[in-house]
Specification:
316 residues, alpha+beta, wza like fold, Outer membrane lipoprotein wza fold like, 3 domains, 5-stranded mixed sheet
Length: 316
């Protein structure tokens, strides 16, 4: 009787148990695969997007004519050999060190030319038809130098498009020593820099006509300054002594006399002398009648740097 009761106790069939465990395994594997797929999808959707944004920013920020220079930070990728991928900074000499190749000069090259150069070197001995990509992560050489007759000469960073008048403004504008002539020296190629000459007066009068040139990274803006020289004047003038004058076409005797306060009442205007030392060291004395200049009988006398003017006293 007891044995019969035990034999009647319900026991799940073996097939049902196996089916149950199989279902659990499938559900577990599916859930794991789903989680892994979701994680992989998130990684794949986020990482390339970040890289794409970064690369897009670099591409938009990099003008096609930008020339690589010292201290620029480069990221170099070789599609066929990821182990060669590096991030390196350009040395002061304009070189980088590339795996397998050693030292490679990239100073003065555009990004495209640097890519082609490295690809060509790799193709010679190591990789067939390599695909080399260079991204410029930091533009340490993306500066413009403004020198000469400006109030704040120095090196200024170029961010976005900049034009000559903007760079002069950044340098505190031209000083009172400026002649108005400006040179832009541009290194379009490492060996043959170009030079563009601009007249500031013409530039400011024709800005709306597109005369304001765009400034590129690496350009040097030279604002020419007047040269100054010393003239010494003694004798019968109101303020004798050292006179500093612009060394230009207006360096004349009358202008020096005016700057010295004019003649005194006892000046002998018809017998002014100019002592001059020639290039060969010879000293000469030139007699000038300022009286005739004032009457229009003679043109104003041209002086030279370091001339010594003497205005004698009248005997009357």
């Amino acid at each position: 009787m007891n044995s019969k009761t035990k034999s009647l106790k319900p026991v799940p069939p073996v097939g049902v148990l196996i089916f149950y465990f199989l279902c659990l395994s499938i559900i577990s594997i599916a859930a794991g695969n789903g989680l892994l797929a979701q994680q992989t999808q998130q990684e794949n959707s986020t990482q390339p997007l970040v890289q794409e944004v970064e690369l897009a920013d670099l591409a938009d920020d990099l003008p096609p004519f930008y020339l690589i220079g010292p201290k620029d930070l480069l990221t170099i990728s070789v599609l066929e050999a990821p182990e060669l991928n590096i991030t390196t900074r350009v040395s002061e000499a304009g070189n980088i060190t590339v795996p397998l190749l050693g030292i490679v000069k990239v100073d003065g090259l555009t990004r495209d030319l640097a890519e082609a150069k490295i690809a060509s070197l790799l193709a010679k001995s190591y990789i067939k038809n390599p695909n080399v990509t260079i991204y410029i992560k930091e533009y340490k050489s993306r500066n413009v130098s403004v020198i000469g007759a400006v109030n704040s000469p120095g090196s200024y960073e170029v961010v976005g498009k900049k034009f000559l008048l903007e760079m002069l403004g950044a340098a505190g504008w031209v000083s009172d020593r400026a002649t108005g002539d400006i040179d832009i020296v541009r290194r379009s190629s490492p060996d043959k820099p170009e030079q563009l000459t601009i007249n500031l007066l013409e530039l400011t009068e024709n800005v709306v006509d597109g005369k304001n040139p765009e400034i590129n990274a690496g350009d040097i803006i030279i604002v020419h300054a007047f040269k100054y020289c010393d003239i010494y004047i003694f004798g019968q003038v109101n303020q004798p002594g050292l006179i500093t004058m612009k060394q230009d076409k207006d360096l004349t005797l009358m202008r020096v006399i005016v700057k010295a306060g004019g003649f005194s009442d006892r000046a002998r205007k018809g017998s002014v002398t100019v002592k001059r030392v020639e290039k060969n060291g010879e000293e000469i004395i030139i007699k000038v009648s300022v009286r005739d200049i004032l009457k229009g009988k003679d043109t104003d006398f041209k002086l030279q740097p370091n001339d010594i003017v003497y205005v004698p006293e009248s005997l009357l």
